[in-house]
Amino acid sequence: MISTLPTYCLNRIFEFLEEDKATLHSCLLVSRLWCRISVEILWRNIWNFKWFNLAEIIRTLIICLPKESKDFLINNGITSIPISKPSLIPLPSIFIKITFSNLRILKLTSVVDVDILIKFLVNNGKNLENINLKIDSSDKNSLDLAIAEYCPNFKSLSIINP
């Protein structure tokens, strides 16, 4: 009988493989549990891949968007929305954990929910230097506070009223 390690032990072990992408890719094929853990680590910082295909990453992210977001993209002229494929792993839960820690410039042409933007800054603002936004000026105060608190390298903010 094969003994198995608890999930939290596997997580801890796999964390040591974060920089060893080849080994993590090998772990994908062992079992569903190993696959889920490996995918979470591999997708955590997708921007560090030396060989990533940006179009494929964006395609995968779009597939996981809720229907309302896909409709928003279609209504704004982005018509080639990929069709969803069944996934072995619940990808949206993994994408919540994606980090953008090396992001220096953020340009958003439409900010629907300032609270979501602030949560993004909390998690990813440490290297952010420039922000260009189209946002309602009534939301500017809470955004200014978040930038001051979570973006220590911040240099420039450009806001355009919609």
Q: Which structural class should the secondary elements be placed in?
A: mainly alpha
β content, as a range? 5-15%
The profile of the biggest β sheet is: 3 strands, parallel
Number of strands: 3
Low-confidence stretches: none
Q: What proportion of the residues is helical, as a percent range?
A: 40-55%
Taking strands numbered 1, 2, ... along the chain, how are they ordered across the largest sheet?
1-2-3
Query: What Rg do the Cα atoms give?
Result: 19 Å
Order of helices and strands: HHHHHHEHEHE
Question: What is the overall number of helices?
Answer: 8
Q: Could you tell me the mean pLDDT? A: 75
Shape: globular
Cα distance, first to last residue? 64 Å
Report on this model:
This protein has 162 residues and is mostly helical. It has helices at residues 7-15, 21-27, 32-44, 54-63, 67-75, 91-95, 114-124, 140-150; strands at residues 105-108, 130-134, 156-160. The chain has a three-stranded parallel beta sheet with strand order 1-2-3, with no helix packed on it. Helix 1 runs parallel beside helix 3. It is globular, with a radius of gyration of 19 Å. The relative contact order is 0.09. The model has no long low-confidence stretch (mean pLDDT 75). InterPro entries: F-box-like_dom_sf (IPR036047), F-box_dom (IPR001810).
